[in-house]
Structures are given as structure tokens and as C-alpha cells.
Design a protein that fits this description.
about 260 residues; twelve-stranded mixed sheet; about 10% helix; globular; binds magnesium ion
Length: about 260
């Protein structure tokens, strides 16, 4: 199932997206998309709605250096254990919304990533049971003020600006994410091209590691790390991240 959130002619709603590309229907879900969703009976043509970020996360956890080739381009070894950091939920924007470069940064980078959306409250989840707590997968761009990330020595400021976490377009619930392509294009030029099978820590291992620290809640989002090829974006460009089996997340870049 493809779960999304749209601004419909009747208001904002969680929806299930169905039908062939170009002719999709958005069926309104009652209340929330967790568990077995129930439907209100209302639906709209997807083309008559505006697609929003598919979830407003309680928290966003992200993994650093989870691809060896990216760790190398950042000038370091890949760490033995997952490195986790957090982005504020206020950094989330949906497909098509602008990424706003703050005037205080001289280098704002894209980082295309597979994102995991948690489906139920959980703690201390063994990797082998991780599938039980996953609602589905979406596409993320872990936008980073690279100069501030390096200057500060920790990442909250550089990763935390409003608009620095584009998410979407959908949450796909029935996806085998073990070996799928992740690709980032800047104005149509391929900048990152890798596969999730090259992640150093699998989705299950990440959930085990993170949930040993903190309780995960329905709607929490985990960004699984970016592959090699990160680089800067400037105003006027459009960045798009595609994860096979999910879709493409495209956002224009503007200066504040
Ligand atoms: Mg990242």
C-alpha cells in the first residue's frame, strides 16, 4: 500500500494512493494510517490534491556514515557501530516545497537517503523483529549545511534548519528494502547512485541500535544514511532523490 498525506479540496488528510501512474486516486483514511487503516469513503483524484510530507514525525533519527564510500569521501573510516544524530521535526517539508538555504551557510548539501517510518510504539527491538515495527519506507533528503556541520563539531545546527528534511512522496508498506537503488539528481544530472545493500548497518540493525537507546513511536522517521557523491546545491537548482519501489522526491532550492 502507498500511504500519503495530501491537501485535498476538503482539507488535509492521510490517504491511500491507488491506481496507475497519472490516474491515481487518493482515498481518505480515517484519523491515522497506523495499523489496519479504515477509510471514510471519500476520495479525490490525486491530481486535484497537493502532496504533503507523508508523515509529521515525532522525531527524526538519522545515521551518519552508513556507506563506506561516503565515509571515505568525508575523510574518515566507517565507524564500527551506527552513529546516530537527530533532526528536529520542524525540518520536514513535502515534495515540491523549497529547500531554503540560510544566509549563515556558504555550503548546503543534498544527501539522498532511504527513510524508515515506524508503525508502533517499541523499545529494545531485536534486528530479527524489526519488520514488525516498520510501517513502511519513504524517500528523504538529509539536507546539511556542511560548513556548519564541520565548524560546530556536532551536527544539530548544520542539519536542523527548517526545510532541511524533505520527505515523500509516499510511504510504501510492502517493500523489500534490502537491495534497492538510491539515486540523487541535481538539475537532472546524476550525483549519487548506489544501492541499499551497500549500507554498513542494515535497517534491522539500525532499529535494534536506536531502540536500545530510545522508545520509538508511530510516525518516527529514521534516515538510513547517504551514499557517496554528496555535494552542494545553489538557489535556482532542483534536487531530486529517487528510491526504486517508492518514487521521486523533488525540491527546488532557494535562498532566504
Ligand atoms: Mg545523512
Amino acid at each position: 500500500m502507498k500511504l500519503g498525506r495530501v491537501a485535498s479540496p476538503d482539507g488535509v488528510a492521510f490517504v491511500a494512493v491507488e491506481g496507475a501512474p497519472g490516474e491515481e486516486t487518493a482515498r481518505e483514511i480515517a484519523e491515522h494510517p497506523f495499523g489496519e487503516p479504515t477509510f471514510t469513503g471519500r476520495s479525490w483524484k490525486l491530481a486535484d490534491t497537493r502532496i504533503l510530507a507523508p508523515i509529521l514525525a515525532t522525531k527524526i533519527i538519522a545515521i551518519g556514515k552508513n556507506y563506506a564510500a561516503h565515509a571515505a569521501e568525508m575523510g574518515g573510516e566507517a565507524p564500527a557501530d551506527p552513529v546516530i544524530f537527530m533532526k528536529p521535526n520542524t525540518s520536514i517539508v513535502g515534495p515540491g516545497a523549497p529547500i531554503v538555504r540560510p544566509p549563515s551557510s556558504e555550503r548546503v548539501d543534498y544527501e539522498g537517503e532511504l527513510a524508515v517510518v515506524i508503525g508502533r510504539p517499541c523499545k529494545d527491538v531485536p534486528a530479527a523483529k524489526a519488520a514488525d515495527v516498520i510501517l513502511g519506507y519513504t524517500v528523504a533528503n538529509d539536507v546539511t549545511a556542511r560548513d556548519q556541520q564541520k565548524y560546530d563539531g556536532q551536527w544539530t545546527r548544520g542539519k536542523g534548519y527548517d526545510t532541511f528534511c524533505p520527505l515523500g512522496p509516499w510511504i510504501v508498506t510492502d517493500l523489500d528494502a534490502a537491495d534497492i537503488a538510491v539515486r540523487t539528481e541535481l538539475d537532472g544530472e546524476v550525483k549519487q547512485s548506489s544501492r541499499t545493500s551497500l549500507m554498513l548497518h542494515s535497517v534491522g540493525e539500525i532499529i535494534e541500535w536506536v531502540s536500545r537507546v530510545m522508545t520509538l513511536l508511530p510516525g518516527d522517521v529514521i534516515l538510513t544514511g547517504t551514499p557517496e557523491g554528496v555535494g552542494p546545491m545553489v538557489a535556482g537548482q532542483t534536487v531530486s532523490v529517487t528510491v526504486d519501489g517508492i518514487g521521486t522526491l523533488a525540491n527546488p532550492v532557494i535562498d532566504k
